[in-house]
Amino acid sequence: MRSPIIFGIAIVSALTSIFVTSTSANAVANRTVGSGSLTRVQFFEHAGFAGGLFKVVGTGACTPEVTDHDDSISYVSDAWNDQISSGKDFNGCDVQIYVNVNYGGSFYPTSSPHYKDMGASWDATAAGWNDRISSFYVS
Amino acid sequence: MGHGRRFFSSSTVTICLTVMATGAGIAAINGQVGASAGDLVPAPPTISSSPPRVSDASALTYPMDRYELSPDDQLLMSRATIVLASACENRFGVANSNSGNITTVPIDNSRHYGIASLAEAQVLGYHAPAAADPSSSSNDKGASSAWTPSPLEELTAYGTGPGADALKDRDVNPLPNGGCYTQAWSQLVGPNPLDPEVANSRSHDASTFAENDERVQVAWRAWSECMAGFGLKFSSPWQANDAGWKMDEPPTTDELRTATSDAHCRDKTNLVGIWYAVESGYKNEIISMNSQEFTKLDAQLVGERMRAVQALTH
After folding, report:
1. N or C, which end of chain A has less CB nearby within 10 Å?
2. Sign of CA dihedral B150, B156, B161, B162
3. Contact between chains at B27 and A16 (C-beta distance less than 8 A)
4. B128 lies within 8 A of chain A by CB
5. Which chain B positions have a beta carbon within 8 Å of A19's beta carbon?
C-alpha cells in the first residue's frame, strides 16, 4: 500500500503532467542581437507584429552598399528557428532571409539585389515564409 | 441539505492549482533555450480578483521596460556614438558625413497579446495600424535623409571589407576591431558591461510563466468557448491571430468577422486584463528575486547616459 504522502505526490504529479500536456503554451523569448542603440530589424513571433520580439541593433544606420553585410545572423537560435511571422526594418536596413542555418537553402528575395526592404510592415505568410526563417543577413 | 460529498477542501484545491501552475512553469522554463530563472521559481503572483479590463493595449507597460533604451536614450546614445566615432575617423583622415538622422523605435507592447481593441478589429482585422509607424517613410536606402558614406568612410566606420587591416591612423595605430563605431559604443557602455540579454531572458521567463499560469489558461479556455459561440474553433488566441491572414492585402470579410468576435470575446472574458496582470506580477517577482542583477542593469544604463552626455558636451 502506498503511503498517503507518496500517493499525494503521485496525484499532483499526474495533474501537473496533464496540465502541461494540455496547454503547451511557450512564449518565445525576446532576443536582441548586436550592440548599439539603433534598431535595425525587428522580427515577431506572430502575425501582425504580435508576441515575442527578435531585434537586431547596431551602432549606426545601415549603408546603401548591399554587397557587404551590416549584420550576419547565421542562426536565429533554437527558440526562434522557424518561428518568425512578421517583421519591420529601420535606419536604412534591409534583410535577406534563408530557410536553413548558415544562409543555406532557399532565400528571399530571389531577385537582385536580394534584399527586402520590409519597411513598416512585412508579413511572412504573404511572402510564403511563415515559420521558415533560420538565418538572415542585414544590409 | 442533500449536498454531495466534498472530496477536496477549497484550500486543497488552491494548493493543487498553485502546484500545477508552478509545475507547468518549471516544465516550460526547463524546455526553453536560454531560460535563466530556473535557479529560482517565482510563486504564482497574487492579482486582483477582477483585474482592470484592457481594451486598448497601446499604453501597456511592463516592469522590465525601464531596462530598455527609450527613444530619447536611443537618440542620445546615437549622437554620442557619432561624436566619438568622428574623432576616431578623423585620426584616419576621414570626415564623418553621418548627419545622425535616425529613426528611434519606441517600446511597443500594443500587440504583446495580439489584438485588444474592438474598434480596431472591426476596421483592421488582425492587421496592425502602420500609418503611425515612424519607419514607413524613412527606411529607403535612397531617401535623401539616408547616410551615404564613401567606401573609405564606411571602412573606418564599421571596419568591414578589404583594406581594413592596412588602415593606420596618424600615430600608426590600426583600425579598432569593428571600426570606429564599435570603439565609440565600447566607450559609451564602459568596461565590463552587463549582457543586455539578461533582461530579455528574465522577461521571457515571466512571459512563459504567465502563459502557463492556471488563471491565464482558464481565461484562454473561456475565450475559446466564447469564440465557439460565434462558430469559430480556436484553442488559443494565437491560433486565431496566426490563421494565415494576408497582411499585405486589405482584410477580408472573414478576417474582420473573426477579429471582431475575437476582440469581443477577449473583452467578455477579460483575457488581456488577466494575462497582463499575471505577467506583470511574474515580472515584478522576478525583478525582486534578482534584485542585484537588475540594480546593476539600472546602474549600467545610468552610466551609459552619463558618458553619452559627457561625449556631447566636451
Report:
1. N
2. positive
3. yes
4. yes
5. 20, 23-24, 214, 217
CB contact under 8 A, B154 and A69: no
d(CA A33, CA A72): 10
Mean pLDDT, residues B166-186: 94
Looking at A26-40, B52-66, B134-148, B169-183, which range is the least confident one?
Answer: B134-148
Domain interval for residue B211: 101-146+190-313
How many structural domains are present in chain B? 1
Alpha-carbon separation of residue B226 from B122, B163, B222, B237 (angstroms): 17, 64, 6, 11
A·B CB contacts under 8 A: 219
- Give me the pLDDT at residue B239, please: 96
Residue A21 lies in a domain: no
Whether A87 has its CB under 8 Å from any CB of chain B: the answer is no
Q: Which of B139, B182, B214 sits opposite A89 (nearest CB)?
A: B139
Would an 8 Å CB–CB cutoff place A23 in contact with chain B?
A: yes
- How much is the pLDDT for A27? 72
A93-121 pLDDT, tens digit per residue, is 999 999 999 999 999 998 877 888 898 88
Q: Examine residue B300 and state whether it is found in any structural domain, yes or no.
A: yes
Q: Which domain holds residue A35?
A: 31-138
**Does A71 contact B at CB distance below 8 Å?**
no
Q: Please report the pLDDT score of residue B163 as a whole number.
A: 87
Tens digit of each residue's pLDDT (9 = 90 or more) over A82-93: 999 999 999 999
Q: Nearest-CA residue of chain A relative to B78? A: A37
Contact A29 B204 (CB under 8 A): yes
- Number of separate helices (H) and strands (E) present in chain B: 11, 0
Q: Are B238 and A51 in contact (CB under 8 A)?
A: yes
The CA-CA-CA angle for residues B252, A117, B111, to 5°, reads: 50
Residue of B nearest to A76 (CA): B33
Prior bond of B151 cis (ω within 30°): no
Tally of domains in chain A: 1
Residue A55 belongs to a domain with what CATH number? Answer: 2.60.20.10
